[in-house]
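lol forgot to send this yesterday, sorry. struct tokens for the thing we talked abt
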């Protein structure tokens, strides 16, 4: 099952393809402070994983 955070993250990242990962992470942190990331590498990994989970939940 895709969590609310995963769904939000996948949609957010899909709408922010014009920046690099640290920039997109900063925007995410501003919009979703309760799901704040400190590390761009972790943010990227979870964003990619969330996208996969949303597009192929089986």
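and heres what i got for the seq, position by position
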């Amino acid at each position: 099952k895709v969590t609310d955070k995963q769904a939000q993250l996948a949609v957010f990242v899909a709408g922010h393809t014009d920046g690099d990962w640290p920039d997109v992470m900063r925007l995410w942190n501003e919009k979703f402070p309760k799901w704040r990331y400190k590390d761009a590498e972790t943010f990227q990994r979870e964003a990619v994983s969330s996208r996969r989970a949303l597009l192929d939940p089986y």
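The chain has one domain: 4-55. anyway ping me if u want another try
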